[in-house]
Write a structure and sequence with these properties.
single chain; mainly beta; Lipocalin; 8-stranded antiparallel β-barrel; 0% helix
């Protein structure tokens, strides 16, 4: 008889802020990086900031994509319904953060969003 306990080693990064939408005013985004060079993005939309800590109670919008190395950055390419979209992000990955960059001008990148790594607690 043997007991086996396991946990996922896939890092999860979290971001929350106002999204300036006409319907929802606050957003929580969660990115999970998978070991097969893919990712899953979950966006939780809510009416106000007060409820962000209970974001798991809301129904997420889920998208996924592939990750590839591009010099010192990674490029995240989104796929919707199995088809490649025109959305690509330049991202710097560290142990504690994902830092998103966008093209400013003349091949210069500017920081836009920082995701913090979530520390999971297992009982």
């Amino acid at each position: 008889m043997s007991n086996v306990f396991g946990q996922t080693n896939e890092p999860i990064y979290l971001y929350h802020d106002h999204n300036y939408s006409t319907t929802y005013s606050y957003e929580v985004s969660e990115i999970t990086i998978h070991s097969d060079s893919s990712y899953t993005l979950k966006r939780y939309l809510m009416k106000n900031r007060k409820t962000w800590k209970t974001y798991k109670d809301f129904e997420p919008e889920i998208s996924s994509g592939k990750i590839r190395r591009n010099g010192k950055f990674y490029t995240l390419t989104e796929y919707g319904n199995g088809n490649k979209t025109d959305i690509e992000w330049n991202v710097k990955v560290t142990k504690s953060r994902l830092i998103f960059y966008f093209n400013k001008r003349k091949d210069k990148l500017k920081k836009s969003i920082k995701y913090k790594r979530v520390k999971l607690i297992y009982n």
